[in-house]
Amino acid sequence: MKIGFIGLGIMGRPMAKNLLKAGYELYVYDIVPENMREIAAAGAKACSSIKETTDHAEIILIMVPDSPQVEEVTLGAGGLFDHAKPGTLVVDMSSIAPLVSQKVGAALAEKSIRFMDAPVSGGEPKAIDGTLSFMVGGMQEDFAQAEPVLKHMGASVVLVGALGSGNTTKLANQIIVALNIAAVSEAFALATKAGVDPRAVFDAIKGGLAGSTVMNAKVPMILDGNFKPGFKIDLHSKDLTNALDTAENLGVPLLLTAQVFQAVQYLRGRGEGQSDHSATAKFYEALYDVEIRK
User: Fold this and answer.
1) What is the DSSP letter of 56?
2) Torsion over CA of 53, 55, 56 and 62, rounded to 10 degrees?
3) pLDDT for 230
4) How many CB atoms lie within 10 A of CB 194?
5) Gap between the Cα atoms of 37 and 198, Å rounded
6) pLDDT of amino acid 26
7) Diameter of the chain measured on Cα atoms
8) What local confidence, expressed as pLDDT, does residue 290 receive?
């Protein structure tokens, strides 16, 4: 099968590599030419435009940062609306606002182009080892075509509902992750302030009820002072913004999410936007006047 892949950032590159390993013929495009070189060296065809990906592909995959980029790729000049063939299946794996997914899907349907939202969870490590979780919104028959492809990049691929449901599920996921990181950061800052070795605290509680995938992934990074981005603070902020905007449209409050969002904005204002979201700990370090890293 021939697949078009648009967007080769931190997540897109390893995801594309896993499709190549699975034997798919891949046509890739990114606005940053250097991002394509690594994937081209692995066997993909680097394209000079979105149109070139549509000339070959039966399925188009999108992995870009946010709603404006998805709208540009799909509905902008020279995008998929202009060039994708009728019947093409477009699977957007970006994490964006659910209402934008629905808007894009409705517009592409005018050209008989099928569209699904399929955001992922797991960050760069799971993108590399092909164990991402996909939350998919769309039609059952489209899901049947996309599922085998997505399973080469993810350990979990679940159709959660109609178009837009994937990104709604992703927002729920991101709220839980953000609050988990904040809770871990606050707790470890408190323990450090009280004079208890944070590594000992981690060893003592990680196997109990407080233990979580988030704790196991992020606390070692915090303790080592390793904030190399697997998922950037800037993207963390974007997801929380989408969650808060969606909640506002629905007329419901997100009290805890709003508090964590303010901590994230504090960090962005101090130049941490490109750091991993585990750098949330730095907010609590500043607040408590301690350094968790040992």
Assistant:
1) H
2) 30
3) 83
4) 9
5) 42
6) 97
7) 64
8) 97
Residues carrying an active site annotation: 170
Residue 287's pLDDT is what? 96
Pairing between strand 154-161 and 45-46?
A: unpaired
pLDDT score, position 53: 95
Torsion of the alpha carbons at 125, 128, 133 and 134, rounded to the nearest 10: 140
> What letter does residue 276 receive in the DSSP assignment?
B
Answer for the pair 175, 241: CB distance below 8 angstroms, yes or no: no
pLDDT value at position 258? 98
Residues in the chain, pLDDT under 70:
294
Q: Nearest 5 degrees, angle CA 269-CA 65-CA 273?
A: 20
Model confidence over 6-51: pLDDT tens digits? 999 999 999 999 999 999 999 999 999 999 999 999 999 999 999 9
- Work out the number of other CB atoms within 10 angstroms of the CB of residue 21: 12
The answer to whether the Cα torsion of 271, 276, 280, 282 is positive or negative is: negative
- Helix (H) or strand (E) holding 49, with range, is none
**Strand locations in the chain (E):** 2-6, 25-29, 45-46, 59-62, 89-92, 114-117, 120-121, 132-137, 154-161
- Which pLDDT value is given to residue 294? 67
Task: Judge contact between 268 and 277, C-beta under 8 A.
Answer: no
Task: Compute the distance between CA of residue 48 and CA of residue 219 in angstroms, rounded to an integer.
Answer: 41
Phi, psi of 112 (to 5 degrees): 60, 35
DSSP 75-141: HSTTSHHHHPPTT-EEEE-S---HHHHHHHHHHHHTTT-EEEE--EESHHHHHHHT-EEEEEES-HH
What is the distance between the alpha carbons of residues 194 and 265, in angstroms, rounded to a whole number?
A: 27
Per the CB < 8 A criterion, the answer to whether 39 and 69 are in contact is: no
Determine the Cα–Cα distance for residues 48 and 187; give it in Å rounded to an integer.
Answer: 49
